[in-house]
Design goal:
The chain is built from three helices and no strands. By secondary structure, the chain is an all-alpha fold. α1 runs antiparallel to α3 and α2 packs antiparallel against α3.
């Protein structure tokens, strides 16, 4: 049980880094040029229903890609930060356990020494 916080910490770091890298890659690989081109065509041909339909289709695809990229970016970051925090919590609890065990050992030794002095007197 002593090494589980390291495994959780590494998993959190990998999830955080993976979320940032994959989300960033997906975000910057979105094809905004086709969206802008379809928007220009739809604005210039506002009476053409085919141009409007094309713009709606391209806009839907663009916003779906944007939503997916941002969900990967923020989702991976949140999961990574959660596991990093959980690993830190486990480390803190284990450190406190060692401190309490040390204090308990000191108290036990003090009681035993007191008992020895009582028995001698």
């Amino acid at each position: 049980m002593e090494g589980i916080e390291k495994v959780i910490g590494w998993f959190g770091a990998i999830a955080l880094l993976g979320g940032i890298l994959v989300g960033g890659y997906l975000f910057f690989s979105i094809d905004k040029e086709s969206f802008d081109r379809a928007k220009e065509i739809a604005e210039s041909l506002s009476t053409n229903s085919l141009a409007q339909a094309e713009y709606q289709a391209v806009a839907s695809l663009y916003y779906a890609q944007l939503t997916f990229a941002l969900s990967i970016l923020f989702g991976g970051s949140v999961v990574g930060l959660f596991f990093l925090g959980f690993a830190k919590l486990i480390t803190t609890v284990l450190d406190q356990e060692h401190v309490l065990n040390e204090k308990l050992g000191n108290i036990t030794r003090a009681i035993q020494e007191t008992e020895k002095h009582r028995d001698v007197s």
